[in-house]
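User: Fold this, then the next.

Assistant: Folding the first:
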Amino acid sequence: MHRRFLRSCLTALWSAATLAGLDVRSAVAEQTVPHAVQFSIPELPAAQFLGTSPSKITRPQSAKAFTTALANGIAANGKVQQGFAIELAPVLLTDTVDLRTYQTNNAAYIWANTAISLGSIRVAGDSSATDLGLGVRSVLVDRSDLMRRKEFTDSLGGVLLTCIDAEPLAAAEACARAAAEGLRRRWTDRTWNEFSVSLAAASGWRLPESEVQGGEWIGFSGWGVAALPLCGRNRPGDPLPCRRGQWLAQLEYNDRLVNDTLDRVSSVGYGVRALFGTARLNAFLEVAGQQLIEGESELDRSTSEWSGGIEFAAGDNLWISTGFGRRFTNGASDNPVQVIANLRWNTSQGPRFKTTR
């Protein structure tokens, strides 16, 4: 029974890790320049392109479930329902990527960490028109992905073995969860700032009568994020800043029609951030900006902002950050803000940057 339990734990942990890998979250952070730069690729590129944050996202895990979700979003008469959002992991529709393949095959790794999103939103001022968005995101490289490290997965098997003699079964399961979480935290503290590259892209169409046929292409957006250890490497014998620091770089390109006009606007957003700390506490300094290439905009043709501060995990799903610079003085945040001792304290469920696992 215990060996079956151990195998089921390993299988469950691998399945959870593979699904978590579909969330491309290398170096995630909140928006620094309004409508311009985030130190992340969007979780749902289609929704980001449309400028919406859907409260309900359908994530089908089989071909049948995907067909049902698509049918709920696009009616039999070809009309698109307004306000739906779907995220699909293509790997779930094909053969499962096993752990060995995930660790050794780069193409399979990218495939397992790719997600496609589809969404729609009502066009402002026209209740019969719908904007339809299609997006894709993927992790190309992520050396902080623990499930791709054979040393970690071997260690995971070892710590789970220490729990197989626990009685009753509920105690063995609790032991396994605690042991796996402790091991994950120790490894994350060592690898959170490793090299990674993530990309995303999205496009969309305006459907005058919410019909798929006859739509007008409204533009394209692309995002890229790269992370690198502060000294370009992360080795046990390196100086502390090299082992505890990270560079982040973000690039965003937009070329699209403005929602309520026919004007086309093209712009490039960019940002660079330096971090020092751990996976649960860090200090940061960042510069971000936007360059307008073509079209009219309420923003200046060229803008840039800087900020710095600290961030720490105050508990499970509770992060607190404060700092200086325009990012913290202009209130550009969607999260709750409190002013204590003349400092703005932002609270959120996740950090301004996130390790990918």
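Now the next one, as you asked:
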Amino acid sequence: MEVITITSQAYKTLESKLDIILEFVAAIKKEPEENLDNIWVNNYEVCTFLKISTKTLQRLRAANEISYSRIRGKMYYRMSEVQRLINEKVIRRSQEDLQDLIKNHRLYVKQRETVRANK
């Protein structure tokens, strides 16, 4: 084993460069792509983040333009269905609005998990 000695200034410079590399790697590291079929959102989330009314969503359901599931009286939609409506321009929103919906849904899920863990 070989021992190498360096000045404290050189060590601090090396350490700062390693921190920069670590930040860069963390920034480009992507989360694994989620399958949009596995994400379910409720009426409130869809209406709030896509800025549509509950009546508009009800009309889409009545016209069979969006598939949904009803569980204990609440409506749930697959994220892939919401994306399809945006892509087909049934709902005039951008992909940024969809990403905002996904991001806020994840935050909502984390909050629920935290509340359940604290009980």
